[in-house]
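[step 3/7] fold_predict: job queued, chain A
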Amino acid sequence: MKIVIGGAGAVGTHLAGLLAAENHDIVLMDEDASRLSVVGEADYMTLEAAPTHLGGLKAASVESADLFIAVTPYETDNITSCMLAHAMGARKTVARVDNSEYMKVEYAPLFQKMGIHSLIYPEMLAAHEIVEGIKYSWVRQFWDVHDGALMLLGIKLRETAQILGVPLKELMHQQKDDTRADGGHRYHIVAIKRDDNTIIPNGDTVLRQGDIAYFMTRPEHLKYIREKVGKTQYADVNNIFVMGGSKAAVHAVNSLPSHMRAIVFDIDKQRCLRLNQLIGNENSLIVNGDATDAMLLKSEGIENVQAFVALTNHAEQNILACLAAKRMGVRKTVAMVENLEFAQLAEKLDIGTIINKKTLAAGSIYRELLKADVRDIKCLTILGVDVAEFKVPDDARIARRQVMELPLPPEVVLGGLVRDGEGILIDGRTQILPGDSVVVFCRSQMMAKMTEFFN
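[step 4/7] structure written:
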């Protein structure tokens, strides 16, 4: 597939590397030579040209592009370059925007007429991830699948977990749910992060203390899993401290459930005045001050806080602030970390939930490339694993066959499916039917191969 990417910033370079690894024909263009020089040796072509210039687009052969992606820091440039690329022959275009109004469903036809087929807003993606991340204080990562029919939980296993040291095939037998007509299970463990390694488990795999285990489950089994992982002592999240009044912070606070109360700290007085206008959540308070100041945090009641969210533009500051909050008794911490090396460090320091906007944006764009009906896709950055929800068409290779009969690659797990709105955990005897939505787990860069089963 021929793909042209306009903008060699964090999102553009990350995406170019991701797609080049799958042998796509990539051109990364930017008018700033210094941004392109950072790329170094890469398996894709770079072009010093502005994506808003017709000459530059022509030099990139955009007329033969299957996909044009505009991810410069400037919204108007992204919109303009997508319109030009479409007019010159690009089959599909994606633009990064900074205006939440553009994301409303009713405006999609307007952008289609303009030649822009899809929009991404990284700050809104990050806000959604933040809200998901603080729903449960005892969970590292949380993902509602198909509007909550299934759930994905990433949980750090401490010494209190009851499921350590037992092969997964025995755990499967122990946690069988006899209340369900199909005799289904309460959870599947679909992936494990152990030190620097990612494990796609089998029946003989044994969980260890310190593992981050990823559970696929149904909503009614959350209490059961919480007991088994020894997390019942964690208080539910009601009060939140947010450090940094970024766009992501605004969208996150405005999206909080009604029972949560947030205090947002920012050291810029003018930004605080602006935040009072932007944040419409009645359960929120804006404080002009430094959220790394322990005395300030104590005066604002950090002893009653269950989650601390650090969203400044400085990864080091976010990591250190989360560590300080944990020392002050906060169970749940969330840090915005844009540097992937720092993200690995934050994980080792036991920060909790890591938010990385460029991988969120890349995952959203990646969905546009898959040659199948994909409802959603999530990149589990720390794991190096992708999760996608595929819709099964009538003539799909995977349809009307039991899972045990499918020639799936060894490092692919089908975690669950949704049929007529009901979540079902998959085992070897499960038969997948047309119309099902199937949740697929596999190592990054393998997802494109999985589309063959859904075509």
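[step 5/7] annotate
The mean pLDDT is 88.
The two ends are 17 Å apart (CA to CA).
exit 0
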